[in-house]
Amino acid sequence: MKTQEQAQQDRQQGRERERPRVVLGVSGGIAAYKACELLRRLTESGHDVRVVPTAASLHFIGEATWSALSGNPASTEVWESVHEVPHVRIGQSADLVVVAPATADLLAKAAHGLADDLLTNTLLTARCPVIFAPAMHTEMWEHPATQENVATLRRRGAVVIEPAVGRLTGVDTGKGRFPDPVEIFDLCRRVLARGRAALTQDLAGRRVVVTAGGTREPLDPVRYLGNRSSGKQGYALAAIAAARGARVTLIAGNTELPDPAGVDVVPVGTARQLREAVLKAAVDADAVVMAAAVADFRPAVYMTGKIKKIDGEEPEPVTLVRNPDILAELSADRLRPGQVIVGFAAETDDVLANGRAKLARKGCDLLVVNEVGEHKAFGADRNEAVILATDGTETPVPFGPKEALAETLWDLVAPRLTDRPA
């Protein structure tokens, strides 16, 4: 018979086994201090985190800080606690390894299989998804050696986040800034949610373009024609694609959402600006997902001065003209052989009938059809839809988080890319 104390220990061990095990690798860059925020979010959301810093990173954040914040010992050495074989066991038992920040040196070692400390040994023994969040100066990120190393890691299934653009060390500004820790955390959460499926990285090496938000067509300096789109569905699609290994360009119209980690964001305002950005980005894209709510019409005349209200007089009618049909244009003239085009149909009545007619009319490969209206789809965190395909199949997506719809859509897109070279 087990004693009460033994039974309690068994229950505690069971609870610990249920907690996702995350290894947070920290390499030697000034952005190491930002990893503390990532660690806090991981631990507070119930993950069991083991921090493995490099020796160089300890010049920025000490070992005691990592141990205190994680509740687990932090070590750089393969020679500590040798009886536990840490250089093998840490990687073997992990559900996720995330290296944040990842320096150019660390990326080079990982790409070439070097193992001269505990972190690089852990990367070699890990059989779970691995995420790298690079942070370095622009010149280092853009150097051909770094780009080759990143490409190698991505081919092997690792998620290498695109660094952000902004202020770097000193007075320098450019691409290489550490991504927002909140966005890295969200990416970690999505990769963990996919479990073993994340190892396949079915979009690795693919370039995808996603549009999001709503366009605004100016009437005068203070007024515009717009819609209720928040961009949440498009942003979810971009974030999920990045988590599945894709290089993502997100063309965003008038949103207030933070940039997803690892995604290149191109802001636009009007339908014509969105068209120009899409056609430019789609030249080398494997898939284009048109999730933005693009205005069908725009005012024929833009008034350079504010339209005044004059007592006793009715305003002049506003004449509208058609905007370009970007989805039909992309579908008719694929900018890359085998390109997969996905459209969205926001309908208010006869949803499926109108959706089927739009699929045939637009000529895209897949069409996501959902019912919209006040408190429906636009601005909400949850959505439901039916995804129509040109082969006649219909895939219903039940009411749930917009990330779930994004996962289902990429599940349908990925097989359509299997016969196309990355």
CATH architecture of the largest domain: 3-Layer(aba) Sandwich
CA radius of gyration is 25 Å
* CATH top-level class of the largest domain: Alpha Beta
Sketch the major β-sheet: 8 strands, mixed
By secondary-structure content and strand pairing, the structural class works out as alpha/beta
Tally of separate domains: 2
CATH fold description of the largest domain: Rossmann fold
Distance between the first and last residues' Cα: 59 Å
* Sheet with the most strands: spatial strand order: 12-11-8-13-16-17-18-19
Query: Low-confidence spans: pLDDT under 50, at least 5 residues?
Result: none
CATH homologous superfamily annotation of the largest domain: CoaB-like
What is the mean pLDDT?
86
Helix content: 25-40%
Strand content: 15-25%
> How many helix segments?
14
> What gross morphology would you assign?
globular
Number of strands: 19
Catalytic activity: N-[(R)-4-phosphopantothenoyl]-L-cysteine + H(+) = (R)-4'-phosphopantetheine + CO2; (R)-4'-phosphopantothenate + L-cysteine + CTP = N-[(R)-4-phosphopantothenoyl]-L-cysteine + CMP + diphosphate + H(+)
Region (Phosphopantothenate--cysteine ligase): 208-422
Biased composition (Low complexity): 1-11
Keywords: Decarboxylase, Flavoprotein, FMN, Ligase, Lyase, Magnesium, Metal-binding, Multifunctional enzyme
Write the layout of secondary structure elements.
Elements: H1 4-18, E1 21-26, H2 35-44, E2 48-53, H3 63-70, H4 86-92, E3 96-102, H5 104-112, H6 118-125, E4 130-134, H7 138-142, H8 144-155, E5 159-160, E6 164-167, E7 173-177, H9 181-194, E8 207-213, E9 217-220, E10 223-225, H10 232-243, E11 247-253, E12 263-268, H11 271-281, E13 287-290, E14 297-299, E15 320-322, H12 326-332, E16 340-347, H13 351-362, E17 366-371, E18 382-389, E19 394-401, H14 402-413
Parallel strand pairs: 1-2, 1-3, 3-4, 4-5, 8-11, 8-13, 11-12, 13-16, 16-17
Antiparallel strand pairs: 6-7, 9-10, 14-15, 17-18, 18-19
Helix pairs in contact: 2-9, 4-6, 5-8, 9-10, 10-14
